[in-house]
Amino acid sequence: MERLLAWRRERGAFGFYAVLLATAILVPLLNLAVPEGSALHMSTYTVTLVGKYMCYALLAVAVDLVWGYCGILSLGHAAFFALGGYAMGMYLMRQIGSRGVYGNAELPDFMVFLNWSELPWYWHGFDMFWFAALMVLLAPGLLAYVFGWLAFRSRVTGVYLSIITQALTYALLLAFFRNEMGFGGNNGLTDFKELLGFDLKAPGVRIALFLVTAAALALGFWACRAITRSRLGRVVQAVRDAESRTRFIGYRVESYKLWLFVFSAMLAGVAGALYVPQVGIINPGEFSPINSIEVVIWVAVGGRGTLYGAVLGAVVVNYAKTWFTTAMPDVWLYALGALFVVVTLFLPQGLAGLIGKLRGSRA
């Protein structure tokens, strides 16, 4: 009986892994093995689009971890996503070398255009992949640690915490727009050529990026699930449900919240780093507060506190966004608002809750 109950609890995770594995197998096959003239052929553009959705899904899992399980409604996770993206973008810019418009092997094109004479100190090291990969984790992790240490020790919670997280990402948006920051200003970083010596436009490299993203999503999902199933996860959920009582019985609530917040930020940074080489650009628009709000909507639509629901919500909402912005661009924001209202009123547990009800009615 206990095994049956455990199986029912794990069905969502098993379903997620099954769908992800099938996608990771089918997409490369349909792109590389099926001829372009066939109706079953999947274009490289579609492969990139699916890879982008997976990056968003990983970001949604990171937000669900802190919001769904710890009650921290972060409206600033776009900042961590963008920082990871910029770290990877800086590495990709250094790989361009003398193939840029101005042919300068040391300085990116935008620095030559702005009459910079030498590379800023914070760009050094980004010609090495391992250093960039380290920065993908450290930059968002360090920012989250400093921000979380100050906020949680001051016992800032609820809507006040949400507001200051949004202020954080908005401040970074304004800072990265400035040319003197050395990150390309309004245009950001783009015109990438290669990654680890491989041409970024080659179909094989696109498939490799897609598979790495799928693996990162699977690993991130597994890590978050392991955390929520552990003793740490039970304490975190106790903080969500009764913070004062948890503190009263002796737990250092601030430490638990800070650890989870930093881990979530690093996960968002990885999602941003995988996103940049696939879409080919990173600019200050990624810090936009509306991006963070959209991630929260993905999680709410999919089902807060389920992890697989966050993945489902990210894919469904972004597919709808792709379709609406192509067919009826003026309607998209109204459709997004209507979807959020419908889910809030009729599906408080999101699509994951609806799936659970359908399974219950069949049983």
Short description:
It is built from 14 helices and four strands. The radius of gyration is 21 Å and the shape is globular. It has helices at 2-33, 44-68, 77-96, 109-113, 129-153, 158-176, 203-229, 231-241, 243-248, 253-279, 289-302, 308-327, 332-346, 350-362, and strands at residues 189-190, 194-195, 198-199, 281-282.
Strand order of the largest sheet: 1-4
Average of the residue pLDDT scores: 90
Percent strand equals under 5%
Rg over CA atoms: 21 Å
Q: Based on Cα principal axes, name the global outline.
A: globular
Alpha-beta content class: mainly alpha
State the helical fraction.
over 70%
Q: Could you tell me the number of beta strands?
A: 4
| Main β-sheet description | 2 strands, antiparallel
Question: Which segments are poorly predicted (pLDDT under 50) over 5 or more consecutive residues?
Answer: none
N- to C-terminal distance: 15 Å
* Number of DSSP helical runs: 14
Order of helices and strands: HHHHHHEEEHHHHEHHHH
Q: Can you offer a commentary on this structure?
A:
This protein is mainly α. The chain is 71% helix and 2% strand. It has helices spanning 2-33, 44-68, 77-96, 109-113, 129-153, 158-176, 203-229, 231-241, 243-248, 253-279, 289-302, 308-327, 332-346, 350-362, and strands spanning 189-190, 194-195, 198-199, 281-282. The strands form two sheets. A two-stranded antiparallel ribbon has the order 1-4. Strands 2-3 form a two-stranded antiparallel ribbon. Helix 2 packs antiparallel against helix 10, helix 2 crosses helix 11 and helix 2 (44-68) crosses helix 12.
